[in-house]
Structure formats: C-alpha cells, structure tokens
Design brief:
Blueprint: H1 6-15, H2 19-24, H3 27-31, H4 34-40, E1 48-52, H5 58-65, E2 69-74, H6 77-87, E3 91-95, E4 108-114, H7 123-133, E5 134-144, H8 151-163, H9 184-193, E6 196-210, H10 212-220, H11 224-231, H12 235-249, E7 259-272
Parallel strand pairs: 1-2, 1-4, 2-3, 4-5
Antiparallel strand pairs: 5-7, 6-7
Helix pairs in contact: 4-5, 8-12
Amino acid sequence: MATATTFDDHERSRWAGRSAAYERSFAPLCAFTAGALLDAAGVEAGSRVLDVGTGPGTVAALACGRDALVTAVDAEPSMVDLARRRLAEAGAVHQGALPDLPFPDRCFDAAVANFVMNHVGHPAAALRELRRVVRPGSRIAVTIWPYPLPPLQQLWGQIFDAAGGRRPVVMHKVDPARDFPRTAEGLTTLLADVGLGGVQCDTITWVHRTDPEDWWSGPANGIGALGMLMESQPPEMIVRIRETYDKLTAAYRGDDGLLALPTAALLASAVVA
C-alpha cells in the first residue's frame, strides 16, 4: 500500500482551515472544467462516481445534478464540512486522500479528480489507487494545470517579481523521480504507464472572470504556493506586492470592474482495463 510523502504532508498543512478562503478565490476558477471532467468520465444518471479532492463539492454537486450516485472525499476537514453542507443528502462525503482511499476494490463506475494531481506527492500511486476502486471498463478523468503556465498563472509570478519579493530558499516540490512533465504528452504517458487504456488528453482554454478583491484574497489568505510566498514577506513588501498587483492587473480589468484572465487546463481520461 502506498503512503503519503513529505510533499503530501506539506500540502495538508497548507490547506488546513482554508476552505472559506479557497471558495472565495480559486474555487470558481477550478469549477470551469467540472462539466467536461464528468463528460470525460462518462458520468450519467445512476453512475456510481467517486470525486477525489472534492474541495467545496463543486464537481460532486454537478454529478448529483446528473442523478449520479456520488461519493466525495477530501483530505482537509474544513473542505469536507463545506462539501457536506453543499451536497446535503444528495451525496456522501468522507475525509480521505490519495494514495490510500477507504473503499473496496472495483466499487465505482467512474472516478474524477479535478486538479488533484497538482497536489499529490506520488502521482502514479494516486492514479493506481483510482484504478483500484473503479470497475473494469469504466473511466477515470483528471485535470491538471499545464506547464508552461497559462497567462493567468504567469501573472502572479510577474507581480511577485516586479514587486521585488523574496522567494524562500526551500520550496516543497514533488520528488523528481516521481514527478511527470505537466504537458499533454507527460500526462498521457503517466496514465498509460499505470495500466490505463484508451488514454485521451485535451487542452481546455477559457477566460476566467473574477472580482479583483476575490482574486487577491487567495494568496493573501495563504492559499497554495502563492500564499506561502506571501506569508514569507515582511509587511512593507506585502504593501508593495498589492500596489504591483493593482498596476499589472489593470490591463485585464473590464468596464464592469472584473478581471478577465486567460488560462488553460489539461483534461485526460482513460479506461480501466
């Protein structure tokens, strides 16, 4: 049985108690791919579907709307609470995390993981665990943020560097021996290498529209690697980063005051043999 890595432990600590901050900031961004993810996994009425890393329950709720039989899991207790409130009686929500899920073999008709592979320390082990709990002939679908980064994600780095922010000496990363190229080819190869068949991978592009204050609130409240960068700065640098944020995001602000940020994701799916 696979076990969590030090990267996984770091991720748990970064997300602890941050469900509300995520729901306000980055959750609407991640929600865009939910419908396509369920389509790729073949989720329909009556499907027994597992949503891993459900967060606030966005994908799980959409699957419930399709009359699927939904089970959702998340490693973070505050996310579990949020998803339970969102799903009410429509689906079951449990605390759990890849690569060790609390379910028997071959008990689901589909499994989905929306941007979860960006947050696991052993991607291949995570996919093997999804393969274990899905019955043969059914589908698994995942999304990831690609590299090179889309404009939306590049913008944060540009803001930080333009402000002169100091980057921490230690940044937690996936062990290179377990990592994979965050490209369509890299993701396709990863799924094939764990024994999945009929692998397909598409690039989804869209423009994310968001309130500037909501978008700022994610890193400002410690969400993800950007949040860790912000936490490592002295107060005067936070002020400078905010000033730079306002300056560099002005080009993306529409007449309605919202930001329009171009981005992209990779969506891959495969069949369990």
